[in-house]
Amino acid sequence: MESELNKEYYKNERKADWRDKLRKEITSKERTLIPKIHMIEEDPLVRNKSNVEVNKGLTLELALQESQRCLDCVKPTCVDGCPVGTNIPKFIKYIEAGDILGAAKVLKENNSLPAICGRVCPQEVQCEAQCVYVKKLNGEGSAIGHLERFAADYDREHGTISTPTLAEPNGIKIAVIGSGPAGLTVAGELAKMGYDVTVFEALHNLGGVLNYGIPEFRLPKSIVDFEINSIRQMGVKFITDFIVGKTATIDDLKEEGFVAFFIASGAGLPNFMNIPGENLSGIQSANEFLTRVNLMGGADDRFDTPVHAGKNVVIIGGGNTAMDSVRTAKRLGADKAMIIYRRSQDEMPARAEEIKHAIEEGIEFITLTTPIEYFADENGHVNKMRVQKMGLGEPDESGRRRPMPIEGSEYDIEVDSVIIAVGVSSNPIIQKSMPELEVTKWNTIKVDENMMTSIPGLFAGGDIVRGGATVILAMGDGRKAASGIHAYAQKLVAAK
Fold first, then answer.
1. Domain containing 313 — which CATH number?
2. Minimal CB count within 10 Å: which of 236, 307, 422, 477?
3. More confidently predicted of 298 and 23
């Protein structure tokens, strides 16, 4: 629930003379008649053979048109749907006023990664779903995500990078473990408060899942690098090839003067289905597949670790990772790139946009079907899979109807590559190095309302707490944890 303080803040912001003037230039009724803009996209038959970004961004004209649809509500319910609390009506009104750099500055008040969020955040089920157009007018919500991307890209392209106001350095050292969205967010927020922040990353490249998990055609690596460099310019230090729990323990880092820690090591341990033949050559996890392509140059034969997806490729799963994998396989030359999912397309957890893009690119969807066994050729390489058709029963704990096997419906599919994308679990390295750390039965870390673990001064967030989740939810954890770490650190200072 939004606090009374926040309600008053948004109310007062709205009263600003320049916003009042904007509202009077176009009536609310006229605004509701403005058609919603749609993202410009690369041709499907071009993009499914390359890593060119699918969504091409908005023109200034389109962005101005969409900004005029925003009603600048007295009670901005869209903000309720944003895990990082972006002041959505304010940044949109800056766009309408023609001050795009001002819009970018507003975004960065609460969001260290706006260009990333504008590309991968599921706005359609968060801020946009809470828009008054959806909640009260039975229409299409404001294209908040598209406008966020536009403002962030404009800021970058015009070379006047907006940086938030930084407090005076306080000399207090904070360690962040992992450089994914949760780690980057907490690092940026604490840097604003004046803390001396160091991010420790296990891999040789920064960005975590943003770099190794999301394909170039959905999130260009240049965007990730730019956002990270923006945080680096705020004074945050980054150390790569450093595994906390192996290279050094938390206790080792305490001896170096770090007083609080944020664990954001993600959920990089892939799940499998444990069915016969799953260990055959040619069957791999989506984690391995995407990491090899995105981080190790697997899409380029000139590198030492090329990835040959195969001609008949099947991806098991229906989430965003499954869509990323199958669309990547298509770009690597697969003749048939197929999704097998045990529920119907309507129950798929992937973003509607990703499903739409996959269909446009020629991906085959085999729904209400599940694998039950794999078979190999004389060389031990997978060449066939047996599947079983499913029916939908009563809803399970997720609210979706439970898939039920249909007896006698088994049939075979010829394949030469299978990619498993049925979820991930947390990497247990840190937990094993700290047996006193409380974890759940899924080996995720337990935290309180301030994101602090069972060990004082040790905080955690993102997938290591949630299991596999979205980028923006991880960022929301980072924002909350930054407040918790700040309160904890200030208590230490006061006690001295």
1. 3.50.50.60
2. 422
3. 23
